[in-house]
Write a structure and sequence with these properties.
This protein is an alpha/beta fold. It has two domains: about 5-230, Hypothetical protein VC1899 like domain (Restriction endonuclease-like) (Rossmann fold, 3-Layer(aba) Sandwich), CATH 3.40.50; about 235-275, no CATH class. It has seven helices and eleven strands. The protein has helices spanning about 20-30, 50-55, 65-70, 100-120, 135-150, 225-235, 260-275; strands spanning about 10-15, 40-45, 85, 125-130, 155-160, 180, 190, 200, 240, 245-250, 255. The chain has a six-stranded mixed β-sheet with strand order 3-2-1-4-5-8, with helices on both faces. Strand 10 (about 245-250) and strand 11 form a beta hairpin. Helix 4 (about 100-120) packs parallel to helix 5 (about 135-150).
């Protein structure tokens, strides 16, 4: 089934101090996207400062850019409230205002991984994840988490905004009619927001979910745990034979064979090492 046909369609974003990444991505998905992907809900992972900026610019009555985008382009109801803004925390559980240390990076990796794991656990959901916002490590962890837990219906992208609208704090999406905003340069020249172009760059990614142990698909496992398991799955197969005890280790599985069975396996193993057929 195509992503746009799933009953639960999720836009998942990371953002720092530029909450407009949400409306820019939503615009590209619902207005210019082909096929259109209209989310039923939006989730935003961000810092404490980013959450406050998202509240004031996207979810407020004025300017309320999220609801304004919906109204101007005739979009259906999309669940996006303060409960859908997830503030990243450090290893001690304190709200993060910025990501500055190795410990902070480890904490956000686990938080992002947990959110992706939880959202992908629903078989009726399709996720479109945008890595365009926030610090580079936030986007990296989101993309990596989707590679670990993503399913065939999940997608990953980066939003592209034309100059001079890119990184302009007054720009949130291309207006359907003339709307004047001002450039951020020294001249602060007037710009027409309807002239902006916003597109999505689809990012292919390797899906490793089917190779993960069942325990890693449940809550509690860290980002590092999942990465180590995925790396182990990609390692060359390894067979170890202990002649003294007739024990065989294949990956993480250890078996004790009868002497006759062990002898046959050892014979096959020697032939394989010599490049001979079984």
């Amino acid at each position: 089934m195509n992503p746009e046909h799933y009953p639960r369609r999720i836009l998942l974003c990371v953002a720092g101090l530029s909450p407009q990444i949400v409306t820019e991505t939503l615009y590209a998905l619902t207005v210019t996207g082909e096929p259109r992907f209209i989310p039923t809900e939006i989730h935003l992972l961000t810092t404490a400062e980013g959450a406050e900026r998202a509240r004031l610019t996207l979810l407020s009555e004025e300017p309320g850019w999220f609801q304004r985008l919906r109204r101007e382009h005739g979009l259906p109801d999309i669940r996006f409230t303060l409960d859908h803004i997830h503030i990243l925390r450090d290893g001690e559980g304190r709200l993060l205002r910025d990501i500055r240390s190795v410990a902070d990076n480890e904490a956000i990796a686990n938080t992002i991984t947990a959110k992706v794991r939880a959202l992908t656990a629903d078989p009726d959901s399709a996720i479109h994840a945008s890595i365009a916002g926030g610090r580079k490590t936030m986007g990296f962890y989101l993309g990596y988490a989707l590679s670990l837990f993503g399913r065939p219906q999940d997608r990953l992208s980066h939003v592209l905004v034309s100059s001079p609208f890119e990184s302009n704090p007054n720009f949130f999406y291309p207006a359907p009619v003339e709307r004047v905003i001002f450039a951020t340069g020294p001249d602060q020249r007037p710009l027409d927001a309807s002239d902006a172009e916003v597109t999505l760059a689809d990012i292919p990614f390797v899906r490793l979910r089917d190779g993960l142990q069942e325990s890693l698909l449940r809550a509690g496992a860290s980002f590092g745990d999942a990465v180590r398991q995925a790396q182990h799955n990609l390692a060359p197969p390894r067979l170890t034979l202990d002649v003294a005890t007739c024990r065989v280790r294949c990956g993480e599985t250890v078996l004790r064979l009868t002497p006759i069975s062990f002898a046959w396996l050892a014979w096959f193993a020697r032939r394989a090492l010599a490049g001979l057929p079984p």
